[in-house]
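Can anyone check this?
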Amino acid sequence: MDFFSFYLLLEIFVLIRRFQQAIEQLEKDECYSPNLAMWLFNVRCARTPEEDNDESIDIWLNPRN
C-alpha cells in the first residue's frame, strides 16, 4: 500500500466515525439545534407546500459574483 492510499483510507475511516457520532448525537438530541431530530424525522411535523405560496426573492444576502 503506498503512501497516498494509506492516508485516503484513513480519511475514509475518520469520515465514517464523524457520521456515526452525528447519528448518535441526533439520537440523544445533543445537536446544535434543539429538537432537530424531531423536525428531520417526524413526518407529522411535515407540511405540504401551498399552490399560492410562490415567494420570489428580490435581494440575495449572499449574491453570486
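Reply from J.R.: I decoded it. DSSP finds two helices and no strands in the chain.
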